Amino acid sequence: MNARTLLLAACALSLAACETTTVYAPAGPDGRTSGFWDQPIEHDRFRVSYRGGDGAPPAQVEDYALLHAAEVTLANGDEWFLVIDRFGMAAPRSGASLSFGIGGGGFGRGGGVGYGLGSSVPIGGGDQLTSTLEIKTGKGASPQGAYNARDVQGSISARLPPPPPPR
Fold first, then answer.
1. Does domain 20-97+127-157 correspond to CATH entry 3.10.20?
2. 46, 80, 121, 155: least buried by Cβ within 10 Å?
3. pLDDT band at 11 (very low <50, low <70, confident <90, very high)
């Protein structure tokens, strides 16, 4: 394999490693892309999740899960939500790695000698974090520790990066 082929392969792997970005949007149907989703449990209880892209900061993943909880609360006609349970998960990095290897061998009359050396360098981001919240929603007087959905939505939405330009 010549140097040009190796360089092209390294560039292709680098581009593949960048495929999982962190944006605030619904999760893709493939289950690997970043984004949010929710699941109703009862009329006033939901499980909401947000999966970040490779290497997304934990605070960003938590914020996006809270933002989606606020949106689910408001869409349900409620004003506040209380986090009943919360858990996170880290999936191993889904990016690519670039491997290098050297090998050789010698063969003589009835005998042989071999040697080898190899190494792998990760070129993707970090782990893919998921934050899941089980929430109870309501309106009127809120219980202690409840989030005001409009306040959460306004605060976190103001920190969202602008959407990427259309391709």
1. no
2. 121
3. very low
In a 13 Å sphere around the CA of 149, the CA atoms on its Cβ side amount to 22
For residues 61 and 50, give the distance between their C-alpha atoms in angstroms, rounded to a whole number: 6
Helix (H, G, I), strand (E, B) or coil at 99: strand
d(CA 162, CA 159): 9
Residue spans per domain, the chain: 20-97+127-157
State how far the Cα of 12 lies from the Cα of 96, in Å rounded to an integer.
Answer: 10
Structure tokens at 66: 């809270």
Pairing of strands 35-42, 111-122: unpaired
Q: Determine the pLDDT at residue 82.
A: 98
pTM for the complete prediction?
Answer: 0.69
pLDDT digits (tens, 9 = 90+) for 88-135: 988 765 455 556 556 555 656 655 555 555 555 555 567 889 999 999
Burial class (CB in 10 A: 0-12, 13-18, 19+), 46: buried
Average pLDDT over residues 12-25: 60
